[in-house]
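To close the section, here is one more complete example, presented without commentary so you can practise reading it yourself. The ligand is magnesium ion.
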Amino acid sequence: MNEFDVIKTFFKESRFFTNPHKIFKCKSFVGIGDDASVFSPPKGFDLVVSSDLLIEGTHFRSDHTPESIGHKVLAVNLSDIAAMGAEPLCFTLSVNMPKFDSNWLHGFCDGIFNIANETSCKLIGGDTVKSKENAPMFFGITVIGIVPSGKALKRKSMKLNDDIWISGALGDPGEAIKNNFFCEKLLTPQPRLALGKKLLEIANSAIDVSDGLSSDLSHLLEESSKNLKKKIFASIDFLSVASCLGPCLFTNYLKNKLSLDECCSLAVSSGDEYELCFSARKGLRKTIKSLSLELNLPLTRIGEVICERESEKIPGFNIKKNIIWKNTKGLPLKPENYPPDGFKHF
Ligand code: ADP
Ligand code: MG
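Output:
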């Protein structure tokens, strides 16, 4: 099969796509097959655009199933759309493979089109290239979403005294990478799109946890400090983090392999979570608890945003770190015991 047959057979027909947004039925729409795609965004909405590149060896392994790789490539991009409070619309897919393997590509397409279909996100274009023999595969996606004009959730808009919340459970993907065990959440993460959309009316700021809560929360604080023109800090309680540990990590505690504090430290530095960390006014606690019931998704309050004056009162306070961690006894961790930062490429 040459490049054009691959595009036609695997990507053009979009055979799994059953729920296209009405903008793709309008006359001006151009999809796969021309030099570029064309669509007109719905009135009253801003476009939200995000790209992620997934490389064999760094983000997935070649012995993972093609279905799970297809799922993950799109899921991690959708997670960024969720963190902005947006709704996905369409995506482009760039594929770079050293060889053509029909069975593998069928599996990959099942994975990617299943989640595309579930989330009504239409494939509108891309690129397909062959790399040198034995070169790693990589996949690049750009996903485009929509959000009511001016309403996108941003990293920079945390407010002083906000509560800090996290969705789902933390720690298992990080443990699975380190100890090489099967973990469904690592292979097929679920982007928190329904939560993100609801948070538009609730949260002041949000970020998705891809590198680890310790570094992602730090980004929220940095951006918001710049925006507020004063340094803000987060005080995070391990006692609350302990109530949202992933089941595998928690088992290590039950088997006395790790202390509860050690489990919490691992949970907040675990990457590949694709949960949403968000901040909201204290007055919204009841609203967020009922949202958790409505979505059938745990939402846990793990700390709060505090000012420099308050932070200084905490023993061991370190101005260079914008997160103050409190152990399960409520005592501040010494900086040398801080959870490691999350994943960084360079
Ligand atoms: P060009 O040479 O102009 O870049 P291509 O031959 O690369 O065009 O692509 C032809 C058409 O197929 C374009 O509409 C492009 O968007 C689409 N396409 C190529 N690869 C993919 C893919 N992996 N997924 C979806 N669409 C693709
Ligand atoms: Mg091309």
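Once you have examined the tokens, check your reading against these statements. Residues 3-148 form a domain with the 60s Ribosomal Protein L30; Chain: A; fold (CATH 3.30.1330.10). The first helix runs from residue 3 to 12.
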